[in-house]
Amino acid sequence: GIQEKLDHITYLNIKTIWITPFYKSPLKDLGYGAEDFYDIDPMFGSMNDFENLLAAIHDRGLKVIMDLIPNHTSDKHRWFQLSRNRTGKYTDYYIWQNCSQAAGSITPPNNWVSVFGHSGWQFDAVRQQCYFHQFGKEEPDLNFRNLAVQQEIHDIIKFWLGKGIDGFSFSAVKFLLEATHLRDEPQVNKSQNPETITAYSQLYHDYTTTQVGMHDIIRSFRQTMNQFSSEPGRYRFMGSDGEEEEDIEATMMYYGTTFTQEADFPFNLNLINMKNLSGNSVFEAVNLWMKNMPAGKWPNWAVGSPSAARISSRIGKEYINVINMLLLTLPGTPVTYYGEEIGMENIASENVTFPEKSPMQWDGKANAGFTESNSSWLPVNSDYQSVNVEIQMTRSNSTLNLYRELTFLRNNELPIHRGWMCYIWNDRNVFAYVRELDGLDRVFMMVLNFGQESTIDLTAVVPSLPSEAFIRLSTNFSNAGKAVNTKLIKTERGEGLVLEYKTAKPVHTMKAFQGSCFVAEKACYSSAFNLLYVNC
């Protein structure tokens, strides 16, 4: 399990492990609908196993955060069973409405649809009413307008923080509240026959997402977590989902305000959601976050997730190293999905529902060293004998070794850890930026190629650049240690360079770059989570 692989985490200089849901669950939706928030599904182990894992993680100086999905439960949850029978206070723990059922068809209260498609209302024969579900019909939504329900979630937070976990990622929080008036949601295509509405994308979700009062609930979660953050070195991290990329201002609301604390950050999926890869598109994805992030807040970046195709499959193997270089040299907290450190690909099979969730490839033995069983729940990728941790640890030019070199650089060089970032170049091929720190004359400059072979003259945009810069790291390992002419910086397709030079005139002090430079201000730094926070 995770515990026996903790050496891999420390080898990569990673500080925090984020574990997706392991609550007791029927596993209808990969564990995102809990049957019991206070227990662990036997498939993953026991509470004793978890406590041993937690102790082992903390013994290594690492942290662990968990997913918490407060929006809904499994229909097997005790609360739901009591609610469908109208038992005491549990009667209104879920969202129940009258609806009619005739000849096997249901007439729901309105046109609201599930994220997974089709009506969000499900008739329950026991209660003779419909319950609302934003996700699968086996995952009824909790009624967060009921204060007793809110208290239940606070109690769950306290339980796990009391166990010693270091924080939560709150998922699906924009779905916590629905409008009480139950009006139909507006159609995207007003001329479409309402009876043919089945897909989530066919409606504007004005009444089922981000309702007034939702942020108050999330802030109350933060207040409960802060009760456990008073001990020295025991700050409790809080992450959350955001909104759609098109509504960046709504996403930034999850940071809270100067006076009211909310999430440390909403998770940033901009780099995952890019439609096309180029120097310009990467710049736009980075800048969208940085220019909208409230002052004094801390950014974060992810290039892979459990719900997106892997980097190698999404944009091509040739870009895996330069994408990791981007991730680990941007300001803020980087988040890596397991396997991206060795360049794992999706399973190439049409019969697999979750091609990006295949077992971690540890070595070239049976089942890639993931399990000693005869088979795993998903097949191992067919390339596991050539793409695995064991073999890449022996190769100095491997994706794994570059990842480790980058995390070492990040952990040991303050400008990259938490200094200024200034954009200096972007075109269809290349995105370039510098990382600087006040009072330090050493500058790191990243030149990252996301297109085709390119040669650029950076002295044309930064006249104070020295004529030569030293290659600290390169995706082409044979180039490390060489000097490059800053007037003619050549990169191949998918190549990335971390250049280092000295200057008496940092870019962030230049008037011409005032709108292109960012630094986190008015905050304290927590090395445990690689983040800044304001309650200090």
TrEMBL record:
Which InterPro entries does its entry note? GH, GH13_cat_dom, Glyco_hydro_b, O16G_dom_2
> What's a single GO BP term from this record?
amino acid transport
Claim: Nucleus is one of the keywords in the record? no
Query: What's the main place this protein lives?
Result: membrane
The keyword Cell inner membrane appears for this protein: no
Name the keywords, alphabetized. Answer: Amino-acid transport, Cell membrane, Disulfide bond, Glycoprotein, Membrane, Phosphoprotein, Signal-anchor, Transmembrane, Transmembrane helix, Transport
Every Glycosyl hydrolase family 13 catalytic domain range: 1-371
Matching entries from CDD domains are given as: AmyAc_SLC3A1
SMART domains registered for this protein in UniProt: Aamy
Q: Which domain of life is it from?
A: Eukaryota
Question: What name does UniProt use for this protein?
Answer: Amino acid transporter heavy chain SLC3A1
